[in-house]
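I hope you will forgive my troubling you with a question about protein structure. I am sending you one protein, given as its amino acid sequence and as whole-number tokens for its backbone shapes. Thank you for your consideration; the sequence and its tokens are set out here:
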Amino acid sequence: MPSPIQIGKHILPNNAFLAPLSGITDKSFRTIAARFGAGMVVSEMIASAALTNGHKDMARRLGRPEKLPHIVQLAGCEPHWLAEGARIAEDAGADIIDINMGCPSKRVTNGYAGSALMRVPDKAVEIIEAVVGATRQPVTLKMRLGWNDDNLNAPQLAKAAESCGVQMVTVHGRTRQQFYKGQARWAPIRDVVDAVSVPVVVNGDIIDLNAARKALAESGAQAVMIGRGAQGRPWLVGQIGDALAGRTPQPAPAGQDRLDLILEHYAMMIDEYGEHLGVRCARKHLGWYLDALIEEGAQIDTALRKQLLTAASSADIPALLTQIFEQIEVKAA
């Protein structure tokens, strides 16, 4: 049973965390995951320079979820902009600042941000020092095993980060060159655990409780971070956290409770993004909710699914979802 993790003054309620996912872990999703018992939730990645220059979408990503410490993840390639971003995030209510050195996206790495910083560790350390020096709040770091298999420098960077004042390190068990292909490797993360005294979190391909336990055993990490496994199942992170803590996990919502949750999530997204953008941003979540139902054995009418995922108005969604759930109940009977 993993020990509780403390970051600054914050003692986290369990050791299963929701990963930061651009375009996914917005305020709405984080609020729901927190409500279902996630031990920690992290904002979408925020580009520091754009935030400092008043970019509206970056400012939206600062939205604080219900419960839990408010953790804001910043990305960038210049110490000055990350320091400014940390100050803005703190002023907006961030309790913890997380630095992104793990994103593999070409759009990010071409600017020498994200996981590209693992290729220039001296620059990475400058950024960490700048962020730690700019905020009174605790700072954490998320990265990968390295840029490629010839440069697995996560242990060295983690040790340097700890010496700068970083209080927790998360490692995705792939290199940047792997992107999200192949299988995450959890065992090499043990070298990071051995290199530092701060808590280490294992990330990558943790889609259920069995994977979480295996990842912890292989890596020696103190906590797990769940990303894509929570899509369409925002309750999963809390379930895994409860099980790791020796508690009986709460069951996934079913029937009317599941329908009510999806409708609430949808309404929250419309409120967060506005009608025009919200309808489009919510479609992927609706699709993932339906996928989760299908994985549980539900049969969903293809035409109804298409109607739901192409609806142009939020006003059409409640009736379509209700019809889908009524069909599921009839077939189950």
Strands lie at 6-7, 10-11, 16-18, 40-47, 71-75, 96-101, 139-144, 169-172, 200-203, 223-226. The chain has two domains: 6-244, 255-332. The CA atoms of residues 104 and 179 lie 6 Å apart.
